[in-house]
Amino acid sequence: MSQPTPPRADHPPVVVGNAVGSFAWGVLHDRHPALVERVRQATAYPAEQQHALDALLREIAEGGVIEPLNDTEPGAAQWRLWAKDHIGRCWADVPFLWAESYFYRKLLAALGYFAPGPWQGIDPFAPFKRAELMGTTVDSELAVLDEIPRLPAPQQDTTLLHASLWGNRADLGFQLSTGDSGLGERVTGLVVDDTAALWDLLADRPPGKVCLVADNAGPELLPDLVLADHLLTTDRASSVSLHIKPYPYYVSDATTSDVLDCLARMSAASGRAAEIGKRLRQAVTGGRLVLRTYPFACAPFPYEDMPDEIREEFASATLTVMKGDLNYRRLVGDRHWPATTPFSAGTAYFPGPVAALRTLKSDVITGLAPHTLTELEATGNAWRTSGTHALVQVRT
Questions:
Q1: Given its phi and psi angles, is residue 395 left (phi above 0), alpha (psi -120 to 50 degrees) or beta?
Q2: Distance of alpha carbon 304 from the chain centroid
Q3: How far apart (Å, rounded) are the C-alpha atoms in residues 171 and 158?
Q4: 35 and 248 in contact (C-beta within 8 Å)?
Q5: Would the pTM count as exceeding 0.85?
Q6: What is the pLDDT of residue 214?
Q7: How many whole angstroms separate alpha carbon 292 and alpha carbon 270?
Q8: 256 pLDDT band (50/70/90 cuts)?
Q9: Which domains are delineated in the chain?
Q10: Dmax over Cα atoms in the chain, in whole Å?
Q11: What number is the average pLDDT over the span 156-176?
C-alpha cells in the first residue's frame, strides 16, 4: 500500500495528541523524550548518533514540527509518500497512531539502524528486552508451567489464554493457587470476556491455521509461545503463523531475534518449560510454527488498510488472534469510538474470524456493555490506560 484509505463518514474522528493531559498528549510530550534519553544511556553510541538524538529531541519538543527523513535514509521515499500531508505540522496535530510510528522510524534513523555501517541492525531496545527476559521472575513463571497438566483441560485452556492476555502480569502462580473455578470469574480486571467463544470457535472447525499477531518481546512473548504450543498439541491448530515485526519498533515489539531468545530461554530451563521449548523448536523446523514479518507491521496505518498479501493470510486462517494494545488500536482503528460500539462494527472489514487479547493501555475501546461502562466510569480511575484491566473479544 502507498496511502491509507480515505476517512469514512460513519467513523468517529481519529485520536490526535493535542488535548493537554490526554493519554496521547502524554506519550508525545513525556514518554517519547524520556525514551530517547533511555536509549542514549543504554548503549554507548558515538558522537554522530548522539548529535542525531539531540536533533530528534529538538524536533519532537512541544511546538516542534514534523520533518522529513533525509533523502539518503533507506526507505525515505515510501515515508515521504506517507508523510506528505503531515510534514511541517506539529506532532500533536496529526493522527496519534501515525505520529507514534513516525517517531520510532526517526529514532531508528538517528541511530543508523538501516544505513550501511557498524550500527546497522543493532536493536536499540535489546538491553531492555534481554534484562527482562533473563530476570529471576521469569524463572518462577516458567517453573509454574509444571503445574498446568494437573488442571482439568478446560482450565488449562483458560489459564494459558489469560496468561497470554496479561503478558508479564500473568502471574500464573496466583492463577493456579485460586482453585478450580472458572478463571474468567476470578480476574476482576476483565471488562469483556469472550474466552468461551474463542475456544468454541476452534472446537467447531477442523484444525487449521491460526494467525497469532504478537505484541511485546521478553516475558510477554513467552506466554504467547506457550499458547501457540498449546494450540498445536491439543489439535486446535494444524499450524500457527506467528506475526512479528521485521525490525525493532515501539520499544519492546517482538522480532525474530526475540522469538529465538525466548525459545533459548525456555530450552535452557527445566521441566515442562524445556519440553515446550523443544517442541516449539521442532515446530519451527517442521513448518508448524511459521514466523511472518510483513513491512506493513511497521506502517503507520490501521489494519483496515492492510495490503492484499496480509488480507489473504488472515482470510485463510481459522482464527486470527491480535495481541496487545497497539494491535487493538490498529484493528478497530485509533478513533474516538463510543465505548459501547460493538466490536463487530470496528472489525467488519476484517477478512476472517478475529479475536483480541488486550491489556488496556490507551483510550480506544469498543464492545463494552452499558452497565460495565457505567461501573468503570463511576470508579474515577484511569481504567482505560492503567493496564489494570483487560479484555478478550471475538468476532466470528
A1: beta
A2: 17
A3: 14
A4: no
A5: yes
A6: 97
A7: 29
A8: very high
A9: 23-122 (1.20.930), 129-395 (3.40.50.10880)
A10: 60
A11: 72
